[in-house]
Amino acid sequence: MADRRWRAALPRLDRLVPRCVEATWPWLDRDRLPAILLTTDRAVQSLNAAFRDRNKPTNVLTFEEMDGFGDGDIAMAYETVRREAQAAGRRFGDHAAHLLVHGALHLAGYDHHRPDEARQMEMTESRILARLGIPNPWRLGGGKRG
Protein backbone atom coordinates (compact mmCIF):
# COMPACT_ATOMS: atom_id res chain seq x y z
CA MET A 1 0.00 0.00 0.00
CA ALA A 2 1.35 3.39 -0.95
CA ASP A 3 1.11 6.59 1.06
CA ARG A 4 -1.52 8.68 -0.75
CA ARG A 5 1.05 11.30 -1.77
CA TRP A 6 2.89 8.73 -3.90
CA ARG A 7 -0.29 8.13 -5.90
CA ALA A 8 -0.99 11.87 -6.22
CA ALA A 9 2.57 12.58 -7.42
CA LEU A 10 2.71 9.55 -9.73
CA PRO A 11 -0.67 8.96 -11.41
CA ARG A 12 0.78 5.94 -13.24
CA LEU A 13 2.29 4.42 -10.10
CA ASP A 14 0.61 1.06 -10.81
CA ARG A 15 2.56 0.89 -14.07
CA LEU A 16 5.85 2.38 -12.87
CA VAL A 17 6.54 -0.08 -10.06
CA PRO A 18 6.07 -3.28 -12.11
CA ARG A 19 8.05 -1.81 -15.04
CA CYS A 20 11.01 -1.04 -12.75
CA VAL A 21 10.94 -4.45 -11.10
CA GLU A 22 10.52 -6.22 -14.44
CA ALA A 23 13.47 -4.29 -15.88
CA THR A 24 15.69 -5.49 -13.01
CA TRP A 25 14.39 -9.06 -13.09
CA PRO A 26 17.43 -10.48 -14.98
CA TRP A 27 19.68 -9.30 -12.13
CA LEU A 28 17.44 -10.43 -9.25
CA ASP A 29 18.03 -14.18 -9.62
CA ARG A 30 14.96 -15.12 -7.59
CA ASP A 31 11.59 -16.72 -8.15
CA ARG A 32 9.42 -14.10 -6.49
CA LEU A 33 9.09 -10.35 -6.67
CA PRO A 34 10.13 -8.16 -3.76
CA ALA A 35 7.46 -6.44 -1.71
CA ILE A 36 7.55 -2.67 -2.17
CA LEU A 37 6.41 -0.21 0.49
CA LEU A 38 5.98 3.37 -0.68
CA THR A 39 5.63 5.25 2.56
CA THR A 40 6.73 8.26 4.59
CA ASP A 41 9.98 9.54 6.09
CA ARG A 42 8.60 8.71 9.52
CA ALA A 43 7.90 5.06 8.66
CA VAL A 44 11.28 4.61 6.94
CA GLN A 45 13.01 6.25 9.91
CA SER A 46 11.34 3.71 12.22
CA LEU A 47 12.47 0.83 10.01
CA ASN A 48 15.96 2.28 9.73
CA ALA A 49 16.19 2.62 13.52
CA ALA A 50 14.80 -0.85 14.21
CA PHE A 51 16.82 -2.78 11.62
CA ARG A 52 19.89 -0.64 10.89
CA ASP A 53 20.43 1.25 14.18
CA ARG A 54 20.19 4.55 12.27
CA ASN A 55 17.50 6.79 13.65
CA LYS A 56 16.93 8.88 10.53
CA PRO A 57 14.96 8.64 7.32
CA THR A 58 16.62 7.64 4.07
CA ASN A 59 15.42 7.46 0.49
CA VAL A 60 15.35 3.67 0.07
CA LEU A 61 15.86 0.70 2.38
CA THR A 62 16.18 -2.90 1.28
CA PHE A 63 15.73 -6.03 3.32
CA GLU A 64 17.12 -9.31 2.09
CA GLU A 65 14.89 -12.35 1.91
CA MET A 66 14.98 -14.43 5.07
CA ASP A 67 14.32 -18.15 5.48
CA GLY A 68 10.62 -18.60 6.09
CA PHE A 69 9.94 -14.86 6.07
CA GLY A 70 9.64 -12.54 3.12
CA ASP A 71 11.08 -12.57 -0.37
CA GLY A 72 13.05 -9.35 -0.05
CA ASP A 73 11.54 -5.94 0.54
CA ILE A 74 12.09 -2.37 -0.61
CA ALA A 75 10.81 0.62 1.37
CA MET A 76 10.94 4.20 0.05
CA ALA A 77 10.31 7.47 1.90
CA TYR A 78 8.17 10.01 0.04
CA GLU A 79 9.51 13.22 1.57
CA THR A 80 13.16 12.28 1.11
CA VAL A 81 12.65 11.10 -2.48
CA ARG A 82 10.70 14.30 -3.27
CA ARG A 83 13.37 16.52 -1.68
CA GLU A 84 16.21 14.75 -3.53
CA ALA A 85 14.43 14.96 -6.88
CA GLN A 86 13.86 18.69 -6.43
CA ALA A 87 17.45 19.33 -5.29
CA ALA A 88 18.84 17.45 -8.30
CA GLY A 89 16.41 19.06 -10.77
CA ARG A 90 14.95 15.67 -11.72
CA ARG A 91 11.38 14.62 -12.34
CA PHE A 92 9.96 12.92 -9.28
CA GLY A 93 8.93 9.84 -11.27
CA ASP A 94 12.40 9.44 -12.77
CA HIS A 95 14.06 9.68 -9.37
CA ALA A 96 11.55 7.24 -7.83
CA ALA A 97 12.18 4.79 -10.69
CA HIS A 98 15.93 5.12 -10.17
CA LEU A 99 15.57 4.33 -6.47
CA LEU A 100 13.32 1.34 -7.16
CA VAL A 101 15.97 -0.02 -9.51
CA HIS A 102 18.66 0.83 -6.95
CA GLY A 103 16.79 -1.05 -4.22
CA ALA A 104 16.21 -4.06 -6.47
CA LEU A 105 19.91 -4.18 -7.31
CA HIS A 106 20.73 -4.18 -3.60
CA LEU A 107 18.51 -7.27 -3.33
CA ALA A 108 20.52 -8.77 -6.19
CA GLY A 109 23.71 -8.32 -4.17
CA TYR A 110 24.99 -5.03 -5.59
CA ASP A 111 26.44 -2.46 -3.22
CA HIS A 112 28.30 0.85 -3.31
CA HIS A 113 30.59 0.90 -0.28
CA ARG A 114 33.77 0.76 -2.36
CA PRO A 115 34.44 2.87 -5.48
CA ASP A 116 34.64 -0.18 -7.76
CA GLU A 117 31.31 -1.48 -6.41
CA ALA A 118 29.73 1.95 -6.83
CA ARG A 119 30.88 2.20 -10.47
CA GLN A 120 29.50 -1.24 -11.28
CA MET A 121 26.16 -0.49 -9.60
CA GLU A 122 25.87 2.92 -11.29
CA MET A 123 26.60 1.45 -14.73
CA THR A 124 23.99 -1.26 -14.20
CA GLU A 125 21.43 1.26 -12.97
CA SER A 126 22.10 3.44 -16.02
CA ARG A 127 21.58 0.49 -18.40
CA ILE A 128 18.32 -0.51 -16.73
CA LEU A 129 17.02 3.05 -16.61
CA ALA A 130 17.86 3.53 -20.30
CA ARG A 131 15.62 0.54 -21.07
CA LEU A 132 12.86 2.38 -19.21
CA GLY A 133 13.50 5.62 -21.12
CA ILE A 134 14.80 7.41 -18.01
CA PRO A 135 17.84 9.70 -18.24
CA ASN A 136 21.12 8.59 -16.68
CA PRO A 137 21.08 9.98 -13.10
CA TRP A 138 24.89 9.78 -12.88
CA ARG A 139 25.58 12.26 -15.68
CA LEU A 140 26.98 15.62 -14.64
CA GLY A 141 27.59 14.38 -11.09
CA GLY A 142 23.93 14.62 -10.10
CA GLY A 143 23.57 11.15 -8.61
CA LYS A 144 22.74 10.40 -5.00
CA ARG A 145 23.25 7.01 -3.42
CA GLY A 146 20.59 5.59 -1.12
Instruction: Please bin the fraction of helical residues.
Output: 40-55%
First-residue to last-residue Cα separation: 21 Å
List the strand order in the largest sheet: 1-3-2
Shape: globular
Strand content: 5-15%
Class inferred from helices and paired strands: mainly alpha
Number of domains: 1
Describe the largest sheet.
3 strands, mixed
Number of strands: 3
Look at the structure and give the mean pLDDT.
88
Given the structure, what is the number of helices? Answer: 6
Question: What is the name of the CATH architecture?
Answer: 3-Layer(aba) Sandwich
Order of helices and strands: HHEHEEHHH
The level 1 CATH classification is Alpha Beta
| Radius of gyration of CA atoms, rounded to a whole number | 14 Å
Which homologous superfamily in CATH is the superfamily?
Metalloproteases ("zincins"), catalytic domain
Query: Which regions contain 5 or more consecutive residues with pLDDT less than 50?
Result: 141-146
CATH topology-level name: Collagenase (Catalytic Domain)
Subcellular location: Cytoplasm
Keywords: Cytoplasm, Endonuclease, Hydrolase, Metal-binding, Nuclease, Ribosome biogenesis, rRNA processing, Zinc
Family: Belongs to the endoribonuclease YbeY family.
Enzyme class: hydrolase
